Amino acid sequence: MLAPPADPGATRTLPLVPLGSDRALGARAGEGLPARYVKRFSLLGVTWNDSDADLTGTVQVRTRAAATGAWSGWQDVEAHTDDVPDLGSADRTGGRTRGATAPLWVGESDGVQVRVGDPSGAALPSGLRLEMVDPGDDPGDSHWDDLLGPDAAVGSLDGSLDGSWNGSLGDLGGHIVAAAPATAGRYSAARPRIITRSGWSANEALRHGGSVYTGSIKAVFVHHSATGNKYSCAQAPSVIRGIYRYHIKSRGWRDLGYNFLVDKCGNIYEGRAGGVSRAVYGAHTLGFNSHTMGIAVLGTYRKTRPSDEALEAVAELAAWKLGIYGANPSGTTHLVSGGGNRYKKGVKVRLHVISGHRDGFATTCPGTELYDSLGIVRRYASDLQGR
Question: Which domains occur in the chain, in start order?
Protein backbone atom coordinates (compact mmCIF):
# COMPACT_ATOMS: atom_id res chain seq x y z
CA MET A 1 0.00 0.00 0.00
CA LEU A 2 1.42 3.38 -0.99
CA ALA A 3 2.06 5.92 1.73
CA PRO A 4 -0.04 9.10 1.55
CA PRO A 5 1.73 12.02 -0.11
CA ALA A 6 3.56 14.40 2.19
CA ASP A 7 1.66 17.51 3.22
CA PRO A 8 3.50 20.45 1.56
CA GLY A 9 1.85 22.98 3.86
CA ALA A 10 -0.50 25.86 3.16
CA THR A 11 -1.18 29.52 3.95
CA ARG A 12 -4.70 30.73 4.63
CA THR A 13 -5.78 34.33 5.18
CA LEU A 14 -8.78 36.07 6.72
CA PRO A 15 -9.40 39.83 6.56
CA LEU A 16 -9.76 41.52 9.93
CA VAL A 17 -13.03 43.32 10.64
CA PRO A 18 -13.96 46.27 12.90
CA LEU A 19 -14.57 45.24 16.50
CA GLY A 20 -17.03 46.65 18.98
CA SER A 21 -16.03 48.20 22.29
CA ASP A 22 -13.17 46.30 23.91
CA ARG A 23 -11.76 47.59 27.21
CA ALA A 24 -8.43 45.79 26.66
CA LEU A 25 -7.83 47.79 23.49
CA GLY A 26 -8.94 51.18 24.79
CA ALA A 27 -11.67 53.48 23.56
CA ARG A 28 -11.02 52.59 19.91
CA ALA A 29 -11.37 48.85 19.74
CA GLY A 30 -9.68 48.47 16.39
CA GLU A 31 -10.00 45.36 14.25
CA GLY A 32 -9.90 41.63 14.74
CA LEU A 33 -11.78 38.36 14.41
CA PRO A 34 -14.35 36.79 16.72
CA ALA A 35 -13.51 33.28 17.87
CA ARG A 36 -13.99 30.77 15.07
CA TYR A 37 -12.97 27.29 13.99
CA VAL A 38 -10.56 27.05 11.05
CA LYS A 39 -8.48 24.50 9.18
CA ARG A 40 -5.43 23.37 11.10
CA PHE A 41 -2.40 25.65 11.30
CA SER A 42 0.63 26.05 13.60
CA LEU A 43 2.00 29.56 13.03
CA LEU A 44 0.22 32.87 12.56
CA GLY A 45 0.83 36.57 12.00
CA VAL A 46 -0.96 39.72 10.88
CA THR A 47 -0.03 41.58 7.68
CA TRP A 48 -1.11 44.85 6.02
CA ASN A 49 -0.85 46.54 2.65
CA ASP A 50 2.05 49.00 3.04
CA SER A 51 5.34 47.25 3.80
CA ASP A 52 6.83 50.54 5.06
CA ALA A 53 3.98 51.33 7.45
CA ASP A 54 4.33 50.42 11.12
CA LEU A 55 1.68 49.04 13.43
CA THR A 56 2.20 50.91 16.70
CA GLY A 57 -0.60 49.27 18.69
CA THR A 58 -1.09 45.81 20.14
CA VAL A 59 -1.86 42.49 18.48
CA GLN A 60 -3.26 39.68 20.60
CA VAL A 61 -4.49 36.21 19.71
CA ARG A 62 -6.14 33.18 21.28
CA THR A 63 -5.92 29.77 19.66
CA ARG A 64 -7.62 26.40 20.12
CA ALA A 65 -5.34 23.37 20.46
CA ALA A 66 -6.31 20.77 17.86
CA ALA A 67 -5.37 17.86 20.14
CA THR A 68 -7.37 18.89 23.22
CA GLY A 69 -9.90 21.49 22.08
CA ALA A 70 -8.69 23.83 24.84
CA TRP A 71 -8.42 27.55 24.14
CA SER A 72 -5.26 29.39 25.14
CA GLY A 73 -5.20 32.66 27.02
CA TRP A 74 -4.52 35.86 25.11
CA GLN A 75 -0.99 35.96 23.68
CA ASP A 76 0.88 39.03 22.45
CA VAL A 77 2.24 39.03 18.91
CA GLU A 78 5.28 41.25 18.39
CA ALA A 79 3.66 44.00 16.37
CA HIS A 80 6.43 46.10 14.86
CA THR A 81 7.94 45.44 11.46
CA ASP A 82 11.58 44.62 12.21
CA ASP A 83 13.09 42.31 9.59
CA VAL A 84 12.83 44.17 6.28
CA PRO A 85 14.50 43.84 2.85
CA ASP A 86 16.59 46.78 1.70
CA LEU A 87 15.01 49.45 -0.49
CA GLY A 88 15.50 48.57 -4.16
CA SER A 89 16.52 44.99 -3.39
CA ALA A 90 15.29 41.99 -5.34
CA ASP A 91 12.97 41.11 -2.45
CA ARG A 92 11.10 44.37 -3.02
CA THR A 93 11.01 44.65 -6.80
CA GLY A 94 8.08 42.28 -7.31
CA GLY A 95 5.66 44.77 -5.76
CA ARG A 96 4.17 42.08 -3.52
CA THR A 97 5.73 42.95 -0.15
CA ARG A 98 3.47 43.56 2.83
CA GLY A 99 4.00 44.95 6.30
CA ALA A 100 3.75 42.33 9.00
CA THR A 101 4.03 41.41 12.63
CA ALA A 102 6.51 38.79 13.71
CA PRO A 103 5.13 35.29 13.22
CA LEU A 104 4.00 33.43 16.35
CA TRP A 105 4.32 29.66 16.77
CA VAL A 106 1.18 28.34 18.49
CA GLY A 107 1.40 24.61 17.77
CA GLU A 108 -1.24 22.66 15.86
CA SER A 109 -4.47 24.63 16.24
CA ASP A 110 -7.96 24.62 14.74
CA GLY A 111 -9.47 27.75 16.22
CA VAL A 112 -8.46 31.41 16.46
CA GLN A 113 -9.53 34.79 17.82
CA VAL A 114 -7.73 38.09 17.11
CA ARG A 115 -7.83 41.67 18.37
CA VAL A 116 -5.69 44.55 17.08
CA GLY A 117 -5.86 48.09 18.39
CA ASP A 118 -4.00 51.19 19.50
CA PRO A 119 -5.08 52.72 22.84
CA SER A 120 -3.67 56.07 21.69
CA GLY A 121 -6.30 56.21 18.98
CA ALA A 122 -3.79 56.12 16.13
CA ALA A 123 -5.09 54.75 12.86
CA LEU A 124 -4.25 51.17 12.04
CA PRO A 125 -2.57 50.27 8.73
CA SER A 126 -4.99 49.44 5.93
CA GLY A 127 -5.59 45.92 4.66
CA LEU A 128 -5.08 44.07 7.96
CA ARG A 129 -5.45 40.33 7.62
CA LEU A 130 -4.66 37.23 9.62
CA GLU A 131 -2.16 34.80 8.10
CA MET A 132 -2.42 31.16 9.27
CA VAL A 133 0.42 28.89 8.23
CA ASP A 134 0.39 25.11 8.06
CA PRO A 135 4.12 24.28 7.79
CA GLY A 136 3.49 20.82 6.32
CA ASP A 137 4.97 17.49 7.31
CA ASP A 138 8.01 17.10 9.52
CA PRO A 139 11.16 15.84 7.80
CA GLY A 140 11.76 12.11 7.99
CA ASP A 141 14.69 10.64 9.88
CA SER A 142 16.73 10.36 6.68
CA HIS A 143 16.74 14.13 6.29
CA TRP A 144 18.77 14.52 9.45
CA ASP A 145 21.70 13.01 7.54
CA ASP A 146 21.79 16.21 5.48
CA LEU A 147 24.36 17.86 7.71
CA LEU A 148 27.44 19.90 7.03
CA GLY A 149 30.18 19.28 9.56
CA PRO A 150 33.89 20.02 9.81
CA ASP A 151 34.73 17.08 7.53
CA ALA A 152 31.83 17.42 5.10
CA ALA A 153 32.09 18.49 1.49
CA VAL A 154 31.64 22.16 0.79
CA GLY A 155 27.99 23.06 0.25
CA SER A 156 27.13 23.81 -3.35
CA LEU A 157 25.52 27.10 -4.21
CA ASP A 158 22.06 25.56 -4.28
CA GLY A 159 22.46 24.39 -0.70
CA SER A 160 22.97 20.69 -1.42
CA LEU A 161 26.02 18.63 -0.56
CA ASP A 162 28.30 18.69 -3.56
CA GLY A 163 32.04 18.41 -3.28
CA SER A 164 32.65 18.24 -7.01
CA TRP A 165 30.92 21.35 -8.36
CA ASN A 166 33.24 23.18 -10.76
CA GLY A 167 30.94 25.65 -12.47
CA SER A 168 31.07 29.41 -12.31
CA LEU A 169 28.80 31.67 -10.30
CA GLY A 170 27.26 32.96 -13.49
CA ASP A 171 25.94 29.49 -14.29
CA LEU A 172 23.39 29.83 -11.49
CA GLY A 173 21.44 32.80 -12.78
CA GLY A 174 20.23 35.63 -10.59
CA HIS A 175 22.13 38.84 -9.92
CA ILE A 176 25.69 37.70 -9.22
CA VAL A 177 28.07 40.30 -7.80
CA ALA A 178 30.71 38.16 -6.12
CA ALA A 179 33.28 35.52 -6.79
CA ALA A 180 34.11 32.56 -4.57
CA PRO A 181 34.60 33.24 -0.84
CA ALA A 182 37.94 34.46 0.39
CA THR A 183 40.41 31.91 1.65
CA ALA A 184 40.57 31.80 5.43
CA GLY A 185 43.65 33.52 6.76
CA ARG A 186 45.61 33.06 9.96
CA TYR A 187 42.53 33.08 12.17
CA SER A 188 39.84 30.58 11.32
CA ALA A 189 37.48 28.13 12.97
CA ALA A 190 36.10 24.71 12.15
CA ARG A 191 32.84 24.45 10.24
CA PRO A 192 30.03 23.59 12.66
CA ARG A 193 27.35 21.04 11.86
CA ILE A 194 24.65 22.65 9.76
CA ILE A 195 21.27 21.18 8.88
CA THR A 196 20.72 22.04 5.23
CA ARG A 197 17.51 23.26 3.62
CA SER A 198 16.70 19.71 2.58
CA GLY A 199 17.22 18.73 6.22
CA TRP A 200 14.31 20.87 7.34
CA SER A 201 12.32 20.00 4.19
CA ALA A 202 12.33 23.38 2.51
CA ASN A 203 9.91 23.42 -0.42
CA GLU A 204 12.21 24.91 -3.04
CA ALA A 205 9.27 25.57 -5.36
CA LEU A 206 8.12 28.36 -3.01
CA ARG A 207 11.10 30.68 -3.42
CA HIS A 208 11.63 33.00 -6.38
CA GLY A 209 14.65 33.59 -8.61
CA GLY A 210 18.34 32.97 -8.15
CA SER A 211 20.62 33.98 -5.30
CA VAL A 212 22.23 37.38 -4.80
CA TYR A 213 25.79 37.69 -3.43
CA THR A 214 27.49 40.65 -1.78
CA GLY A 215 31.22 39.95 -2.08
CA SER A 216 32.18 39.48 1.57
CA ILE A 217 30.91 39.13 5.12
CA LYS A 218 32.06 41.99 7.35
CA ALA A 219 29.54 41.61 10.17
CA VAL A 220 26.92 39.34 11.69
CA PHE A 221 23.54 40.57 12.91
CA VAL A 222 21.94 38.42 15.61
CA HIS A 223 18.14 38.30 15.78
CA HIS A 224 15.44 36.48 17.64
CA SER A 225 12.57 35.10 15.59
CA ALA A 226 10.02 36.42 18.15
CA THR A 227 7.97 33.27 17.48
CA GLY A 228 7.72 32.42 21.18
CA ASN A 229 9.46 29.74 23.24
CA LYS A 230 6.75 27.07 23.28
CA TYR A 231 8.39 24.86 20.68
CA SER A 232 10.33 21.66 21.22
CA CYS A 233 13.60 21.12 19.38
CA ALA A 234 11.93 18.31 17.43
CA GLN A 235 9.46 20.94 16.18
CA ALA A 236 12.17 23.39 15.12
CA PRO A 237 12.13 22.30 11.44
CA SER A 238 8.36 22.89 11.39
CA VAL A 239 8.84 26.34 12.93
CA ILE A 240 11.41 27.17 10.24
CA ARG A 241 9.15 25.92 7.46
CA GLY A 242 6.43 28.14 8.92
CA ILE A 243 8.70 31.21 8.96
CA TYR A 244 9.87 30.38 5.43
CA ARG A 245 6.30 30.23 4.12
CA TYR A 246 5.35 33.37 6.09
CA HIS A 247 8.24 35.36 4.60
CA ILE A 248 7.39 34.29 1.03
CA LYS A 249 3.62 33.84 0.89
CA SER A 250 2.52 36.35 3.53
CA ARG A 251 5.21 39.04 3.28
CA GLY A 252 6.01 38.66 -0.43
CA TRP A 253 9.77 38.11 -0.15
CA ARG A 254 11.87 35.97 -2.48
CA ASP A 255 13.06 33.55 0.20
CA LEU A 256 13.52 33.16 3.93
CA GLY A 257 15.03 36.40 5.22
CA TYR A 258 17.64 34.99 7.62
CA ASN A 259 20.84 33.36 6.40
CA PHE A 260 20.87 30.91 9.31
CA LEU A 261 18.68 29.92 12.23
CA VAL A 262 19.59 28.34 15.58
CA ASP A 263 17.22 26.50 17.92
CA LYS A 264 17.40 26.35 21.71
CA CYS A 265 19.15 22.97 21.59
CA GLY A 266 22.01 24.48 19.59
CA ASN A 267 21.12 23.02 16.19
CA ILE A 268 22.14 25.25 13.27
CA TYR A 269 19.98 25.45 10.13
CA GLU A 270 20.74 26.83 6.69
CA GLY A 271 18.29 29.66 5.98
CA ARG A 272 18.27 31.63 2.73
CA ALA A 273 19.44 29.56 -0.24
CA GLY A 274 22.71 30.26 -2.02
CA GLY A 275 25.40 28.23 -0.24
CA VAL A 276 26.35 28.19 3.40
CA SER A 277 29.92 29.41 2.84
CA ARG A 278 28.91 32.19 0.43
CA ALA A 279 28.15 35.85 1.12
CA VAL A 280 24.43 35.51 0.40
CA TYR A 281 22.42 38.73 0.42
CA GLY A 282 19.62 38.36 2.96
CA ALA A 283 16.57 40.28 4.18
CA HIS A 284 17.08 40.70 7.91
CA THR A 285 18.39 44.19 8.81
CA LEU A 286 17.03 47.12 6.78
CA GLY A 287 19.92 49.22 5.50
CA PHE A 288 22.58 46.65 6.39
CA ASN A 289 21.82 43.48 4.46
CA SER A 290 24.84 43.95 2.20
CA HIS A 291 28.16 42.41 3.37
CA THR A 292 26.47 40.95 6.45
CA MET A 293 24.93 37.71 7.65
CA GLY A 294 21.72 37.34 9.67
CA ILE A 295 21.41 34.65 12.35
CA ALA A 296 18.02 34.23 14.05
CA VAL A 297 17.72 32.35 17.32
CA LEU A 298 14.31 30.67 17.39
CA GLY A 299 12.31 32.10 20.27
CA THR A 300 11.54 35.35 22.07
CA TYR A 301 14.23 36.75 24.36
CA ARG A 302 12.87 39.98 25.81
CA LYS A 303 12.69 38.40 29.29
CA THR A 304 13.92 34.84 28.71
CA ARG A 305 17.64 34.12 28.67
CA PRO A 306 18.79 32.13 25.63
CA SER A 307 20.17 28.68 26.33
CA ASP A 308 23.92 28.11 26.56
CA GLU A 309 23.57 25.69 23.65
CA ALA A 310 22.05 28.39 21.45
CA LEU A 311 24.74 30.93 22.38
CA GLU A 312 27.51 28.41 21.70
CA ALA A 313 26.00 27.57 18.31
CA VAL A 314 25.78 31.25 17.31
CA ALA A 315 29.43 31.71 18.32
CA GLU A 316 30.57 28.60 16.42
CA LEU A 317 28.70 29.63 13.29
CA ALA A 318 29.94 33.23 13.46
CA ALA A 319 33.55 32.17 14.13
CA TRP A 320 33.58 29.85 11.10
CA LYS A 321 31.84 32.18 8.65
CA LEU A 322 33.70 35.32 9.73
CA GLY A 323 36.96 33.36 9.57
CA ILE A 324 36.36 32.62 5.89
CA TYR A 325 36.28 36.35 5.21
CA GLY A 326 39.04 37.37 7.64
CA ALA A 327 36.84 39.19 10.18
CA ASN A 328 37.57 39.39 13.92
CA PRO A 329 34.49 38.41 16.03
CA SER A 330 35.61 40.76 18.84
CA GLY A 331 36.40 43.66 16.54
CA THR A 332 34.48 46.47 14.91
CA THR A 333 33.87 47.32 11.29
CA HIS A 334 32.41 50.13 9.19
CA LEU A 335 29.28 49.65 7.10
CA VAL A 336 27.46 52.17 4.91
CA SER A 337 23.73 52.34 5.57
CA GLY A 338 21.42 51.64 2.68
CA GLY A 339 18.71 53.62 4.48
CA GLY A 340 16.63 52.69 7.50
CA ASN A 341 14.89 54.06 10.57
CA ARG A 342 18.11 54.49 12.57
CA TYR A 343 20.67 55.59 9.98
CA LYS A 344 19.98 57.52 6.81
CA LYS A 345 21.17 56.22 3.47
CA GLY A 346 24.86 56.82 2.90
CA VAL A 347 25.82 57.21 6.57
CA LYS A 348 29.00 55.33 7.50
CA VAL A 349 28.44 53.45 10.74
CA ARG A 350 30.92 51.76 13.08
CA LEU A 351 29.47 48.49 14.39
CA HIS A 352 30.58 45.43 16.30
CA VAL A 353 31.49 42.62 13.92
CA ILE A 354 28.93 40.59 15.90
CA SER A 355 26.05 43.01 16.42
CA GLY A 356 22.46 42.76 17.53
CA HIS A 357 19.68 43.72 15.15
CA ARG A 358 18.98 46.85 17.25
CA ASP A 359 22.48 48.16 16.53
CA GLY A 360 21.51 48.79 12.90
CA PHE A 361 17.76 49.30 13.20
CA ALA A 362 15.51 50.89 15.83
CA THR A 363 13.93 47.76 17.28
CA THR A 364 13.85 45.68 20.45
CA CYS A 365 15.21 42.68 18.52
CA PRO A 366 17.00 40.43 19.46
CA GLY A 367 15.43 40.92 22.87
CA THR A 368 17.25 42.29 25.91
CA GLU A 369 18.38 38.92 27.25
CA LEU A 370 19.92 37.78 23.96
CA TYR A 371 21.40 41.20 23.24
CA ASP A 372 23.07 41.30 26.65
CA SER A 373 24.63 37.89 25.93
CA LEU A 374 26.44 38.99 22.77
CA GLY A 375 29.63 39.78 24.68
CA ILE A 376 29.84 36.09 25.60
CA VAL A 377 29.28 35.16 21.95
CA ARG A 378 32.05 37.50 20.77
CA ARG A 379 34.58 36.16 23.27
CA TYR A 380 33.83 32.51 22.51
CA ALA A 381 33.92 33.09 18.75
CA SER A 382 37.29 34.81 19.07
CA ASP A 383 38.61 31.89 21.12
CA LEU A 384 37.43 29.49 18.43
CA GLN A 385 39.38 31.47 15.83
CA GLY A 386 42.52 31.19 18.00
CA ARG A 387 42.77 34.90 18.77
Answer: 10-134 (2.60.120), 141-384 (3.40.80.10)
